[in-house]
């Protein structure tokens, strides 16, 4: 199991996510983002706007995703 924070995954806070795969941790981050969106948390809304801008460029989004996946894989086991 490995740990990454919301901020390390492109978010806005230090909430930790623990998972065995990058796909799992990405899903946890997405669910957290949804909750923060519903709460209208401004810091998270700002981070989401940055991600949405990145999503407009498929190559940039793919590159970001691969970079984050490599960061996850390089982490030590908890």
Descriptive account of the structure:
The protein is mainly α and 78 residues long. It has one domain (2-74). The chain is built from 3 helices and 2 strands, in the order E-E-H-H-H. The longest helix has 17 residues, at 22-38. The model has no long low-confidence stretch (mean pLDDT 95).
Number of domains: 1
Please give the order of strands in the largest beta sheet: 1-2
Tally of DSSP helical segments: 3
Structural class: mainly alpha
Q: State the share of residues found in helices, binned by percent.
A: 55-70%
The average pLDDT is: 95
Q: Tell me the total number of β-strands.
A: 2
Coarse morphology:
globular
Order of helices and strands: EEHHH
Largest sheet: 2 strands, antiparallel
Radius of gyration: 12 Å
- Unreliable stretches (pLDDT < 50, length at least 5) are none
The percentage of residues in β strands lies in: 5-15%
Short description:
With 78 residues, the chain is mainly α.
Keywords:
single chain; about 80 residues; mainly alpha; two-stranded antiparallel ribbon; 3 helices; globular
């Amino acid at each position: 199991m490995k740990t990454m924070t919301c901020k390390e995954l492109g978010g806005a806070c230090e909430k930790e996510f623990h998972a065995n795969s990058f796909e799992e941790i990405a899903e946890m981050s997405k669910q957290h983002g949804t909750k923060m969106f519903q709460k209208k948390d401004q810091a998270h809304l700002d981070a989401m706007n940055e991600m949405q801008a990145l999503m407009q460029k498929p190559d940039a989004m793919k590159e970001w995703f691969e970079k984050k996946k490599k960061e996850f894989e390089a982490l030590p086991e908890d």
